[in-house]
Amino acid sequence: MRYIWINPVARAMYGYEAIRRALKQKEYECIDAEADWGGIVREKYRKLVQETGEAAASGTGWGVTPATVVDARCPKAYQMVKHAFEGPELVFGDIHPILIHIAIELSETPRYAGAEKIITTPCASLADEGNALRLQDTRFIPWNQFREALGLQLPVEAIEASPIPPGYFAGLPGRIDSISEEHRIWNYFRRGDDRGASLVEMLFCKDGCHNGDGV
Ligand code: SF4
Predict the structure, then answer these.
(1) Model-level pTM?
(2) For the segment 40-69, what is each residue's pLDDT rounded down to a tens digit?
(3) Distance 115 CA to ligand 1 centre (A)
(4) Contact partners, residue 21, CB within 8 Å, separation at least 6
(5) Which run of H or E residues covers position 10?
């Protein structure tokens, strides 16, 4: 048996039950992580925002205004901003995207040891980031590539709202900004709009991952 994790965008677009049934016929079993990685990752960011604020208050940060934590869940946006705008006023935390955390857990789960594990992604950049980790018996692949390679014929269900919408960090302390689309993210940092923000959420694709290149 081979194991596969289906990303939330594909689940919403094609229907999880329909995907499970179709993949079972191809001898793939759909699996999930035990841990609530969405909640755990959000808590990691909350702590990072808090520590950054405390560093500013104690005079060990880059200035009296706390630095801005940069969302690292979208590799494409994160790398673009890091490359072009890295400086002491921005915090590039070492927090994996949620999907990568899930893959790490599955790769280390004894029940799945020795079997191939496929992690489907909504874009090539997440697949590249995952494959660079070289997790045991684990391969990341954009959902559309996997579906086409397997010849899966599944009707698309229209989705009105993104399953991964902007707003993930709502409720964290301080000013949380949220931007999607390459040119908007670029202009935001170029203008210095990040000044005073605790954290900036970034999604490279318009409105989120349902517009990724791998769905
Ligand atoms: S917003 Fe687009 S590029 Fe970023 S993680 Fe989602 S699908 Fe990938």
Answers:
(1) 0.94
(2) 999 999 999 999 988 888 888 777 778 999
(3) 28
(4) none
(5) helix 8-14
